[in-house]
Amino acid sequence: MKTSYSILKGHWRVLNAFEMSEAQQAINVISCYTSRRLWSRQSILFWLNQCLKSNITKVDHLCTGAAYCCLLDILFPDSINLRRVKFITDQEKDFVNNFQILEQGFRKLNVDKSIPIDKLVRGKFQDNYDFIIWFRLFYNANFRRVPEGYDVELRRLNQPFIVGTVPKLKRSRTSTTIKNQNSPRTRSATQDPTLRISPSSRSD
Q1: pTM of the complete model beyond 0.85
Q2: Pairing mode of beta strands 88-89, 11-14
Q3: I need a surface site. Which of 108, 110, 145, 200 has the fewest CB within 10 A?
Q4: Dist CA 119 CA 98 (whole Å)
Q5: Angle formed at CA 150 by CA 88 and CA 39, multiple of 5 degrees
């Protein structure tokens, strides 16, 4: 947890979780056109995957909003409810839901950044690149250290960041392959018990 202190009767004391949630105040930042020069696409992805212990391969995939929610949770644990975040989805309504959760966290922390949800959920590179550049500036300004005992993967229940759905495993068929469908003799008797080769049909 991020540690905060207050003075009571001349003594320092640690704020409890409720008081911390009320006292949490984020440092606001502003990005501009020249901010794009700070980090390349590759360096942004490397930083993201280091922070989140993930395997995000495209900036475009940040359109789900899930990665931003996890980054905010690192900075301010429990500022949002990660259990409501959809990590594996290809539905735009879920993307919007994730960004709305992020917005709620922003309001709680008094972050004055407006989130262009309509643009981000389209999955266009430039829109998502501009927003992640701002978010890294915001992250750098507010990051102190990873809270003790904090497990970024466990916080999201070990779910990966996937734009799409997890493919279901297909059952493998154990039946014998038919080499020539026009010749019934090539079928296994165990595959089709009605097929039998009579002794009279065997060639001498």
Answers
A1: no
A2: unpaired
A3: 200
A4: 14
A5: 65
| Cα(105)–Cα(89) distance, integer angstroms | 21
Taking Cα atoms as reference points, which of 83, 65, 52 lies closest to residue 146?
A: 52
CB neighbour list of residue 125: distance below 8 Å, 6 or more residues apart: 58, 59, 60
Rg over alpha carbons for the chain, rounded to the nearest Å, is: 28
Handedness of CA 98, 99, 101, 106 (dihedral sign): positive
Rounded-to-integer distance, Cα 198 and Cα 92, Å? 63
For the stretch 55-59, contacts whose Cβ atoms lie closer than 8 Å and that sit 24 or more positions apart, written own/partner, are 55/160, 55/161, 56/161, 58/125, 59/125, 59/128, 59/129, 59/132
Distance, CA of 76 to CA of 63 (rounded, Å): 22
Confidence of residue 178 (pLDDT cuts 50, 70, 90): very low
Contact residues for 120 (Cβ-Cβ < 8 A; gap 6+)? 62, 63, 65, 95, 99, 127, 128, 131
CB-count burial class (<10 Å; 0-12, 13-18, 19+) for 197: exposed
Q: Which two tokens stand for residue 142?
A: 């507010």
